[in-house]
Task: structure prediction
Amino acid sequence: MQGSGHCAGYVNACGTTAARQAVAAFHSSDRGIQSVQAASVIIANGCSGALELALTALLDDDSILLVPQPGFPLYQVICESHGAAVVPYRLKPDQEWECDLEHIHELCVQHGRAVRGILVNNPSNPTGSVFSVEHLQDLVDVCQRHHLPVVADEIYGDLTFGKTNFTPLAEVAAACGSHVPVITASGIGKQYLLPGWRVGWIVFQDK
Result:
């Protein structure tokens, strides 16, 4: 189409420059702890599409992804479509559904190099828990000890109530020295209250 001020065509497969810049700015910390560049962002078909991109790159036959239990069933569907398996790690109902860090450690020791990463869903579906900064720091420490990259499903980020605050895991990892690679998956459908728009993204933090 010409002459109307509009055009139709393909954009960069990773998303338009403007969209990637906007996502990068959104995920950059106001305190300067985390600075995200547009080149570290990929726009996807909703957060589900973003998770599929991340897990497709991370997994192959006979590899393992650690996932929360209880958790969102899509993780298992994506993993098994690539010949990989999920191994659940426990959440603690008596401690506000925090991750059982000792159980994560045991699973890493048990399965060794087959474990390609861990998925962390915060705020959590279905428990509704929001992890404290201190708990996220402890989780990053476990991941660093086991050289474990993190896929952070944060589609519900900032959807909190009362005095509860959400802190992105990548920001905590950056403050801890950025030794743990974090792939953050999010989108506009939940926290921007735009269901059906199917715009999501992944953001990479890996020095």
Remarks:
- The longest helix spans residues 46-58.
- The domain at 17-205 is CATH 3.40.640.10 (Aspartate Aminotransferase; domain 2).
- The longest strand covers residues 85-92.
- The chain has a mean pLDDT of 93.
